[in-house]
C-alpha cells in the first residue's frame, strides 16, 4: 500500500495527473519560446484566479514564506508602522518578518478560533499612521477565515495598503482582489492552486507598485536591502513574459511553472464560483461528520474555512491518532498553533479533493479513534457527512 496514502494535510496536496505529467516534461531553456508562452499564460491565469485583472502578477521560485517576505518588503520599510491582524501562527510569522525589516508593529489579535473584531481594527486604524495592514485570509493553524473584504475596505478608508496572505485560501475561498481593492495577495503553489510546492505567487495593485517605485526614487540608498525580495527587480521580467518576450533576472523554476500553468488552467475551467462552492460543500459535510463524532472544531462555525479544519483530540486520545489514521491510509497534520499544538490535529481539504476523499478520511479517523481507545460510533461520522453531501 505504499504510495496509496491519501494526503489530507494543508499542503502539499493531492495533485491531478495532468499536473504531475507536466512536471515530467522536458526542461526547456527559460528563454525558449514555448516556455515563454507557458509562463506568460500562467501569469495571465493568476490574474483570472485571483479575480485581479488590474493587478500585476508575479510567479517567483520560492515557498509561501518567500511570497510573504516579497509582499512585506514591497509595502514596508524601516521605521514604518504596520498593523497585523493576528489570527494565528502565520500572522505571527508576518509580524516577525515586519519587525525584522524594522517596522513598528501593532497587533489586533483575535481570540483562538474567532474572527478579529472589526470595531477594534477600525479603532486601531483611526489611531493613524499605518503604512500597511496584513491579514491572513485563512490561518492554517486554526482554520479561521478572516473577513478580508471588510478588513480591506477599512484599510482603504484609512488610506492604508492591504496585504492578504492567501496561501491557505487562494483558489478555494472567495477572494476578489480587484473588487475588494486588496493591494497585495500572496500565495504559494502547493495548496488550493493545485501544484507542487516551490512557487511563490503574488498579485500587486498599481497602488502597491507605485508605492514601491516612489520610495525608490524618493530615498535612494534605501531600496529593499535584498535584491531577490525587491518586487521592482521582478516586475520587468513578469511584464516581459506576459507580453510573450523572454527576460532574465533569476532562473524560473521551469518545470514547476509548467505544472502551475496546467493546474491554473484546470481551476479556470472549473470556474472560481463553482470551485468555492465545491470546497464549501465538502467542508460543511466534514464538519457535520466531525460534530457527529463529538469532535470539537477549533474555528467557530461562522468563520470555519473551506480549506482546513483544526480539530481537538477527544479525551484520552493524543497525537498517536495521526499515526493510527495513517495506518488506515490517510495522512493528517499535527497541531501547529502554540496554544493547541499538542491538543489538536488538522485536516486539509482543498484542491482536487472529492466527496469520496472526504468520506475515506472520516472513515479512517473513525477507525483510528477506535484503535486508539477513543469512544466512537463507527460509521456515524461517515453517515452524517453522506447526509450533508446528499442535500447540498
Ligand atoms: N501562510 C499561510 C497561511 C500558510 O498556510 C503557509 C504554509 N502552511 C505559509 C504562509 C508559509 O508557506 P510555506 O510553507 O510555503 O513557506
Work out the number of β strands.
Answer: 14
Query: Could you state the order of secondary-structure elements as H and E?
Result: EHHEHEHEHEEEHEHEEHHHHEHEEEHH
Largest sheet: number of strands, sense, barrel closure: 7 strands, mixed
Mean pLDDT: 96
Number of helices: 14
Major sheet: order of its strands?
A: 2-10-9-8-5-3-4
Structural class by helix and strand composition: alpha/beta
Oligomerization: single chain
Molecules bound to protein: 4'-deoxy-4'-aminopyridoxal-5'-phosphate
Radius of gyration: 21 Å
Helix content: 40-55%
Span of the ends, CA to CA: 33 Å
The poorly predicted ranges are none
**Overall geometry:** globular
Strand % is 15-25%
Task: Report on this structure.
The structure is a single chain. 44% of the residues lie in helices and 16% in strands. It contains 14 helices and 14 strands. Strands 2-10-9-8-5-3-4 form a seven-stranded mixed beta sheet, with helices on both faces. The radius of gyration is 21 Å and the shape is globular. It binds 4'-deoxy-4'-aminopyridoxal-5'-phosphate. 4'-deoxy-4'-aminopyridoxal-5'-phosphate is lined by residues 10-11, 63-65, 68, 90, 136, 140, 165, 167-168, 188.
Amino acid at each position: 500500500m505504499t504510495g496509496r496514502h491519501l494526503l489530507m494535510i494543508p499542503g502539499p496536496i493531492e495533485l491531478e495527473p495532468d499536473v504531475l505529467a507536466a512536471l515530467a516534461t522536458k526542461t526547456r531553456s527559460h528563454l525558449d519560446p514555448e516556455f515563454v508562452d507557458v509562463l506568460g499564460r500562467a501569469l495571465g491565469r493568476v490574474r483570472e484566479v485571483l479575480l485581479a485583472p488590474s493587478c500585476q502578477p508575479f510567479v517567483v521560485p520560492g515557498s509561501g514564506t518567500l511570497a510573504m517576505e516579497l509582499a512585506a518588503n514591497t509595502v514596508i520599510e524601516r521605521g514604518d508602522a504596520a498593523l497585523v491582524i493576528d489570527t494565528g501562527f502565520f500572522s505571527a510569522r508576518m509580524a516577525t518578518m515586519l519587525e525584522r525589516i524594522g517596522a513598528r508593529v501593532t497587533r489586533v489579535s483575535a481570540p483562538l478560533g474567532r474572527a478579529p473584531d472589526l470595531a477594534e481594527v477600525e479603532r486601531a486604524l483611526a489611531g493613524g499612521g499605518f503604512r500597511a495592514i496584513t491579514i491572513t485570509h485563512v490561518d492554517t493553524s486554526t482554520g479561521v477565515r478572516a473577513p478580508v473584504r471588510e478588513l480591506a475596505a477599512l484599510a482603504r478608508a484609512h488610506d492604508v495598503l492591504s496585504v492578504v496572505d492567501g496561501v491557505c485560501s487562494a483558489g478555494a475561498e472567495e477572494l476578489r482582489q480587484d473588487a475588494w481593492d486588496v493591494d497585495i495577495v500572496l500565495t504559494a503553489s502547493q495548496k488550493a492552486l493545485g501544484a507542487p510546492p516551490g512557487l511563490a505567487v503574488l498579485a500587486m495593485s498599481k497602488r502597491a507598485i507605485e508605492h514601491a517605485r516612489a520610495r525608490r526614487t524618493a530615498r535612494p540608498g534605501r531600496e529593499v536591502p535584498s535584491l531577490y525580495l525587491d518586487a521592482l527587480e521582478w516586475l520587468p521580467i513578469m511584464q516581459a513574459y506576459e507580453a510573450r518576450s523572454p527576460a532574465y533576472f533569476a532562473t524560473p523554476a521551469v518545470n514547476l511553472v509548467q505544472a502551475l500553468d496546467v493546474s491554473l488552467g484546470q481551476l479556470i475551467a472549473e470556474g472560481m464560483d463553482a470551485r468555492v462552492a465545491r470546497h464549501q460543500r465538502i467542508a460543511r459535510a466534514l464538519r457535520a461528520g466531525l460534530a457527529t463524532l463529538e469532535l470539537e472544531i477549533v474555528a467557530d462555525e461562522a468563520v470555519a474555512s473551506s480549506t482546513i479544519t483544526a480539530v481537538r483530540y477527544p479525551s484520552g486520545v493524543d497525537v498517536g491518532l495521526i499515526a493510527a489514521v495513517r495506518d488506515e491510509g490517510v495522512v493528517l497534520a499535527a497541531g501547529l498553533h502554540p496554544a493547541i499544538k499538542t491538543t489538536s490535529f488538522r485536516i486539509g481539504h482543498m484542491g482536487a479533493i472529492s466527496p469520496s476523499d472526504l468520506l475515506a478520511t472520516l472513515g479512517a479517523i473513525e477507525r483510528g479513534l477506535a484503535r486508539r481507545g477513543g469512544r466512537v460510533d463507527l460509521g456515524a461520522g461517515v453517515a452524517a457527512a453522506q447526509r450533508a453531501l446528499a442535500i447540498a
